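Slide 14.
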Amino acid sequence: MAQAFFDRYYPAHMTNQPAATSIELGEPLEKYAGSYQFTRRNHTKIDKFFSFLTQINIKVSDNRLSIGSGADQQVYTPIGVNLFQEVGGKHQMGFRTDTEGKVTYLFLDILNPMPLEPTLLINQSKFWLPLLGISAVLFITVLLGAIYRRRKIKAMPRAQKWAVLLLVVTSVWSLVTLGATLLVVNMDLIDRLSHISLSLRLYLFMPLILVGWSVAIVTMNVLAWKNKYWTLPKRVYYTFVTLAAVTLCLFFYHWNLLGWHFG
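Slide 15: predicted structure.
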């Protein structure tokens, strides 16, 4: 069926083992590079989150396209318009473009009949992972700073001391929630599809609690600027950590991890 599809929509003469000097199409391959996600995916339920790390990234090198890296890397060379053949293999990859030449769909014979489409930036892992990484680093610096400056914190006025304590608690809860999220990502596929585990139900309380802490820290951040707590650099730092907590909440909201969005 897969071969029939490619024969029907990409009727080009091809060989099973293309040489390194395969057809030069005269146009750059960069338009094919990028992240792709399955067109058939969940948008409103918790399963949306599981598409976060199942995107396919295509890279361009030496007038060839590649998927994966290391021993699992697959390299494809052009053999026709929008059609590529695996080097040293039998698999094929095709693209559909619009009238302006922009890629709209990706087809892989090994994934037939599941087409893919270019991933929007807000859905790309390369957009969220750096934000999560920066946020995690900020949360860790809060904990280290609280340990290093514990005597100075004790000597602060009561309102400022509560502000620091709230920052520490929010940072701890954020890191714990991120760690629990990694466990959710690594859930066994069969278990995820067969039933909704108690651990998953309990986990979903954690992002909601984080939202509560984030609302509190945003409020405290406003008070810190209004009442001029600490020095200006420290207030800026407090704001950055607050933004990190808000970013984490937005991540959980975008990927349907706020609440129990079961199908």
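Speaker note: Strands lie at 34-38, 56-61, 64-67, 74-80, 83-86, 92-97, 103-108, 116-118.
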